[in-house]
Design brief:
globular, 20 helices, mainly alpha, 435 residues
Length: 435
């Protein structure tokens, strides 16, 4: 039985890799090679053109993705078009993320090679499925930076370093996050907790904690302020790429909130949005204060709706997470309740799950803050990291059990099979683009 499962694992691994290449080739043809910008690419392209035509200062004042534009400029200086430069920046960050991820898995996770292979294939599946690294948007930059953050954390955790290099690098990575996208502010709380866990694991005293923290905060603050100096002088705020609205006096918070209200009362299909004209009409009829106009106002505008939408959003993530991560997501949910029921969850065991803690806090933050539709691309970083956590948990669950190797192989085979089955409809529907 075990021998047959091992043979089947080799076959299904090869098949899943072939399916991934097919899926990626189609996404590459549809998205990367598209002659015109798609969706959010329009906004990034407009700001990059301002960056090229009016310079760093003016683009910074208007609001832009600093790291994304600076890297894209390197490609533009080599002769690529504006759109090609943006896409090549994303593509490079995506490939770099996959390379770094494999090194991360091999270096820091002591599980059998089959579990490492499945974790990596699942992560690549998530990357290819979203295909953000084939578009001219900055999401995948944050994926690479999150992986870099954990690589540094684990390097510090597993190796005794006498210098402060890793803490300096942590400051640089955090700064680059904040210089890429406003949403990276949501990383700060889980990052702080992961660093606190590292300090606990290293048994640092108060003096060491303060000195290491000071290095991280000083480096990140200096870099963020330096690169945002034009915007700080002119606007008194940091520079971020903000998606433009149709009417200057309206905000995305208002559009999202009214859409959530309409979906709640059944006059709008879920995941659809009202028009900007609908928002303008609603405010004209009910007053300018009838909808929240910022993120903070959204959270406090109707606390009962905020709490209700939080639980709804958390529940709704089960479907896309299963689609993207496969059955190991469901299996690990069951494992969580099993350990909870058996009272095997301790504070110290939780401290060993820094990637999971980061992911849960980030997911809950998104679900709490975003009142309406949540986009899968916002979870791109944890989609690459969670397969490691899930496969490691399955390995340790079966490691000392009777027939554990056999049962573990069955789960791994089912995982790869589930990824193949869920990918085939897209491939069969779009294979003609490769012909």
């Amino acid at each position: 039985m075990n021998r047959l499962l091992k043979i089947f694992f080799k076959l299904i691994s090869a098949t899943s890799i072939l399916v991934l290449f097919s899926y990626a080739a189609i996404q590459f043809r549809i998205k990367f090679l598209s002659p015109s910008p798609k969706s959010d690419e329009h906004g990034f392209l407009n700001m990059f053109e301002m960056f090229l035509n009016e310079g760093y200062f003016q683009a910074n004042v208007e609001g832009n993705s600093i790291v994304f534009n600076l890297i894209s400029y390197l490609y533009y200086s080599l002769g690529f078009s504006e759109l090609q430069s943006l896409r090549l920046t994303s593509f490079t960050a995506g490939i770099a993320s996959l390379i770094l991820l494999w090194v991360f898995i091999k270096k820091f996770f002591s599980v059998s090679i089959n579990y490492k292979i499945v974790a990596y294939i699942t992560a690549v599946h998530a990357m290819v499925l979203g295909a953000t690294f084939m578009g001219g948007i900055n999401d995948v930059i944050l994926v690479f930076l999150t992986l870099s953050f954990f690589f540094i954390i684990y390097s510090e955790k597993f190796y005794n370093n006498s210098n402060n290099r890793n803490y300096f690098l942590l400051g640089v990575v955090i700064a680059m996050m904040l210089l890429t996208r406003m949403m990276s502010a949501l990383y700060l709380l889980p990052i702080a907790i992961v660093i606190a866990i590292l300090f606990h694991k290293k048994s640092f005293d108060v003096k060491q904690v303060l000195s290491k923290s000071a290095i991280i905060i000083t480096v990140s603050t200096v870099l963020v302020l330096a690169f945002n100096w034009p915007s700080l002088v002119e606007n008194g705020s940091l520079s971020f790429h903000i998606k433009k609205t149709k009417f200057q006096d309206l905000s995305w918070s208002q559009l999202q909130y009214l859409s959530a209200m309409r979906a709640e009362d059944g006059t709008l299909e879920y995941a659809q949005h009202v028009s900007w004209e609908d928002v303008r009409t609603y405010l004209d009829e009910n007053g300018e204060d009838a909808l929240p106009n910022s993120l903070t106002e959204t959270l406090l505008f109707n606390p009962s709706r905020t709490i209700k939408e939080f639980f709804v959003d958390v529940f709704l993530q089960i479907k896309p997470f299963t689609r993207i991560l496969g059955i190991i997501f469901i299996f690990n949910l069951l494992l969580f309740f099993y350990y909870l029921f058996k009272r095997k969850l301790t504070l110290e065991s939780c401290f060993n799950q820094d990637i999971l803690i980061f992911s849960i806090i980030y997911i809950f933050s998104i679900c709490f803050i975003v009142i309406y539709v949540i986009e899968n691309r916002w979870f791109g970083n944890i989609f690459l990291l969670l397969p490691i956590v899930f496969c490691t948990a399955i390995f340790h669950f079966f490691k000392d059990k009777k027939d554990g190797e056999t049962n573990g192989l069955m789960i791994l085979n089912l995982q790869l099979l589930s990824l193949i089955i869920m990918s085939l409809p897209f491939i069969l529907k779009n294979y003609h683009v490769l012909v």
